[in-house]
C-alpha cells in the first residue's frame, strides 16, 4: 500500500517532519459531514422562517375581527332604529287617543247630548280609551328606556370599533414590517445555502436531499456511539467510517451520521 506524505520544516528543531497525506483527506471529508450538518441547520431555519412568513401573510389584510365588530354594531343600529320607530308609533297613537278623549269629553260635558243611553255609551267608550291611553303611555316609557339603553350600547360599540380599527392598522403595519424582514432573512439564508451546496459534491447533496425528503431530518449527530435520531447504538465499523469523514448512513434509520 502506497502512502504519500506532506513535508513540514520545524522552526524549532530545523528537522523535516512528514505528515501522511491521509490526514488532509480526513480533514476534508470531515468538513463534508460538517457542511451537511450546517446545511441541515440552514434548511431548518429556512423552513421556520417560511412558516412564519406564511402565517403573517395570511394575517395581512385579514379583517375578520373588524367585520365581526361592524356586524354587531350594524345589528345594534338596526335595533335602535326599530325601537325609535316603535316609539314614534306609540306617541302618535297616544296623541290620537288624547284627541279622541278630548272630543268625547266635549260631547259628555257639552250639554248637547241628553239621552241617558248615549251618555252611558260615550262614558263607556271614554273609559276604554283612557285605559288604552294609560297602557300606551307605560309602553312608551318602556320603549324610551330601551332606546336610551340601546343608544348607550351603540355608542360603546362605536368606540370599540374605532379602537379596533386603530389597533388593526398598527397590527397591519407591524405585519408588513415583519414580512419585509422575514423576506430579507430568507433571501440571505437561501444565498448561504447556495454557497454551501456549491462546496459539496453533487452526489452527496443529492443523497442529502433524498433522505431529507423521506425523513425530513437527513443528518443525525452521533453521541457516545449512538445515533441521536433513532437512538440505536452503532457498530464499530460504522463508527470508524463515520469518523473517517466519509458520508456514512445509519444502518437503522438511514440518516447521514455526523460526529462533531
Structure description:
With 260 residues, the protein is an alpha+beta fold. It folds into two domains: 32-58 and 201-258, no CATH class; 60-194, Orthogonal Bundle (Helix Hairpins). Helices cover 73% and strands 8% of the residues. It is built from five helices and six strands. It has helices at residues 21-59, 64-109, 116-197, 202-215, 236-243, and strands at 5-9, 16-20, 219-223, 226-227, 232-233, 256-258. The strands form two sheets. Strands 5-4-3-6 form a four-stranded mixed β-sheet. Strand 3 (219-223) and strand 4 (226-227) form a beta hairpin. Helix 1 runs antiparallel to helix 3 (116-197) and helix 2 (64-109) runs antiparallel to helix 3. The chain is rod-shaped, with a radius of gyration of 44 Å. The relative contact order is 0.13. The model is unreliable at 1-14 and 16-30 (pLDDT under 50).
Structural class: alpha+beta
The oligomeric state is single chain
Question: Proportion of β residues?
Answer: 5-15%
Give me the count of strands: 6
Write the CATH fold name of the largest domain. Helix Hairpins
The CATH C-level class name of the largest domain: Mainly Alpha
Please give the count of helices. Answer: 5
List segments where confidence is low: pLDDT < 50 over at least 5 consecutive residues.
1-14, 16-30
Amino acid at each position: 500500500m502506497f502512502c504519500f506524505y506532506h513535508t513540514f520544516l520545524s522552526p524549532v528543531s530545523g528537522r523535516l517532519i512528514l505528515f501522511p497525506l491521509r490526514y488532509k483527506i480526513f480533514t476534508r471529508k470531515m468538513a463534508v459531514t460538517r457542511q451537511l450538518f450546517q446545511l441541515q441547520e440552514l434548511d431548518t431555519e429556512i423552513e421556520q422562517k417560511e412558516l412564519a412568513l406564511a402565517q403573517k401573510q395570511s394575517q395581512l389584510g385579514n379583517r375578520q375581527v373588524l367585520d365581526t365588530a361592524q356586524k354587531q354594531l350594524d345589528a345594534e343600529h338596526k335595533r335602535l332604529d326599530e325601537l325609535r320607530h316603535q316609539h314614534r308609533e306609540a306617541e302618535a297613537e297616544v296623541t290620537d287617543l288624547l284627541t279622541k278623549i278630548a272630543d268625547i269629553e266635549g260631547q259628555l260635558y257639552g250639554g248637547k247630548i241628553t239621552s241617558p243611553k248615549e251618555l252611558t255609551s260615550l262614558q263607556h267608550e271614554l273609559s276604554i280609551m283612557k285605559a288604552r291611553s294609560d297602557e300606551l303611555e307605560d309602553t312608551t316609557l318602556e320603549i324610551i328606556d330601551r332606546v336610551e339603553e340601546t343608544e348607550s350600547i351603540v355608542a360603546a360599540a362605536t368606540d370599540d370599533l374605532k379602537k379596533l380599527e386603530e389597533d388593526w392598522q398598527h397590527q397591519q403595519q407591524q405585519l408588513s414590517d415583519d414580512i419585509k424582514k422575514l423576506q430579507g432573512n430568507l433571501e440571505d439564508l437561501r444565498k448561504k445555502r447556495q454557497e454551501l451546496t456549491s462546496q459539496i459534491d453533487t452526489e452527496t447533496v443529492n443523497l442529502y436531499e433524498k433522505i431529507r425528503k423521506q425523513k425530513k431530518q437527513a443528518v443525525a449527530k452521533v453521541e457516545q456511539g449512538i445515533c441521536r435520531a433513532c437512538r440505536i447504538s452503532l457498530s464499530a465499523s460504522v463508527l470508524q467510517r463515520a469518523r473517517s469523514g466519509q458520508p456514512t448512513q445509519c444502518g437503522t434509520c438511514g440518516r447521514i451520521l455526523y460526529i462533531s
